[in-house]
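Open question from group meeting: does this chain pack into something compact, or does most of it stay loose? Before anyone orders reagents, we agreed to write out a predicted structure and look at it together. Recording both the input and the output here so the notebook holds the full record.
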Amino acid sequence: NVGDIMHLCHEGFGKDFGATLLEEMARHGDLGPGALEDVLKDCYNNQWKKWCKDRKITNRVPVFSKLLLGKSSVDDYPCFTGKVKAASCKYLLFFLNDLCLEVANRLGGDYRKQRSACIYSLCDFLNTVDRADDIMKEHEAQRACKSGHTFLQLYVHLAQLNFTNGVAAYKCRPKLHYFMHLCDYLCVTLENPRKHHCFLDEDFVGKIKGIAARTHRKLLMGRTLQRYVLLLRSRFRTTGVAELKTVVRKELFRSKV
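Structure tokens returned:
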């Protein structure tokens, strides 16, 4: 699904990009002096936790480390491991946007400014589609499209610079190409790609998995269905039939648009 930003970005190139930014700033000394592991840990405790607390965001990310960044050797491209879920990856990208801007303003340099502009463009795309309706206005679609293409151009530029210098950073995946098509389609259809997010689908699969894991393998299908029906019944009692009908009507309306 080309329009599924969750798997394109938050489970795809966003993990490469976020881990690369964090590892690069720590390695270059932009976040302070010291060994890489110590700098990453200090950034986690003093900056990431404070950022989450100020925005009342629940921190579900383990402590920053080379292991979390998937950097076991010099030749490995940084990439957040499976411990960083899609929702947490999105928060990390916005955190790194603020951090890159602060570093660029404090230390200067063309490379740092290009890096900051790259992450800003991606976050501006995400912020634009998050605030827009299912059918976007033309100026919103144009802004998202422009931000998306700017991000891609700067990302490829940074990847080429690091490749020339023999540094494993800014990994290029086919999902970046899909993202380019998403931006192109957006200007034509005006359909908000947020509509294709799979967060609810993934949550549903996780709930069913939790139910099925507690059943016997011989009665897996029947017992899972029975327990799911009991869960729905409990939901009806706590939420109320009227409220659930309202939610269903809204979801049906959204699916028809």
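Observations to bring back to the group:
Residues 138-164 form the longest helix (27 residues).
The radius of gyration is 21 Å.
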